[in-house]
Amino acid sequence: MPGGEPARASQERWLRARGYLNKHRSELTAAAQELYPAAWRVAGTPLLALPHWIPAAPVPLGQVTLSWRPDAAPGALTGLEPESESARPLRQDGTRYPSYAEALGELSRPRLLENRVCYRLLGASAGPPGTHLTFGAGRYFDMINLCEATAHELAAATLDGRVRASRRAPAARLPLRSLIGDPTDFRRRPVMAAVSALILRRCGIQDEIRNEPWMILHWRDPSKVATGGGLYQVAPVGMFQPSHDAGWNHANDFSLWRTFVRELSEELLGSGEDYGSDATPIDYGRWPLYAELTAARQSGALRVYWLGLGVDPLTLVADMLAVAVFDAPLFDSLIATGARGNDEGHTDGFPFTAATIDRFTREEAMQPAGAALLRTAWHHRGTLLPP
């Protein structure tokens, strides 16, 4: 066999590092944040952001505008460079896996791993009077090949003792991360952003169910997801992408609101991801859930806000931060507050209180985007949850 023992040893090292990454993402995130300026951290959490990415106050989602650049040049980096070799083990034939996604698919495949079309984030500005985001075309594996590979590199270096988790890592010991450089420079690499939304239930004056606001959190199962496994996160969360790769969906689904409704339906209401849009675009106006939630926004029973954008220091994945505030009757008619399993882990309800915010941002293992959303939403609770 051409690969023989070197290939087996290479794959075993890769699997150990992948396992270490999934078990120690929180500790590795704490180490990774030290590689970047402390001034970039959002609300004292590890999430990284430039000042113009975080608005001074919640922005109604209707004031977030999107633009499309079909002629955008590809990012300079792909994750296939020689610097990524430590995250790409040898195959049985003795050659190296050409990409991290291929290694992940063959050696430790999660339940969800598909190279879907995505909207690639090119730029963001959150100044008054609203937020503007620019996108081009991309693919999910563009993110996996750079972002998960970069996280894997740090896990492997920490596991091997080449990097101490409590200290800054010399650039020479993290060649791929060093090649990427500034993680906020979206010209250097393809950036596929997720829409991460915190769901809040607003209490009524005579609420008989709860006397405090309630929120939904999600635990991500590492056996089911390619990124963020073993961590808590807000819900719903999903890549900003069309519902299917068929070309007619690209313009029809190019909407943060439509993405939010689809993800809420999938993660919190248990629906599938098959909308039949491989054959025809989704008719959002005739989808009962979409129509109900859109009417709720118009009546004020549901208010959706943009809270900014940030980058995870471990994976360098970008998250767009949103909060959806449901009046109690609408929430209770749609969303169960107990534990519920889904395709990516399980969700559960928790009180939206200072104690709970402290627990999940200081004690539990939580994704930086989720922690930043909790802290930022709590800071703006007077706007989000007026008396």
Question: Explain this structure to me?
Answer:
This protein has a single domain, classed as Nucleoside Triphosphate Pyrophosphohydrolase, CATH 3.90.79. 32% of the residues lie in helices and 20% in strands. It is built from twelve helices and twelve strands. It has helices at 4-23, 25-33, 100-107, 140-159, 175-180, 249-252, 256-267, 288-299, 328-334, 354-363, 368-379, 381-384; strands at residues 59-60, 64-68, 117-125, 131-139, 193-202, 214-220, 232-234, 237-239, 302-311, 318-327, 340-342, 345-351. The strands form two sheets. Strands 1, 5, 6, 7, 8, 9, 10, 11 and 12 form a nine-stranded mixed sheet that branches. Strand 9 (302-311) and strand 10 form a beta hairpin. Helix 1 (4-23) packs across helix 4 and helix 10 packs antiparallel against helix 11 (368-379). 45% of the residues are buried.
Output the keywords.
single chain; 387 residues; alpha+beta; Nucleoside Triphosphate Pyrophosphohydrolase; nine-stranded mixed sheet; 32% helix; globular
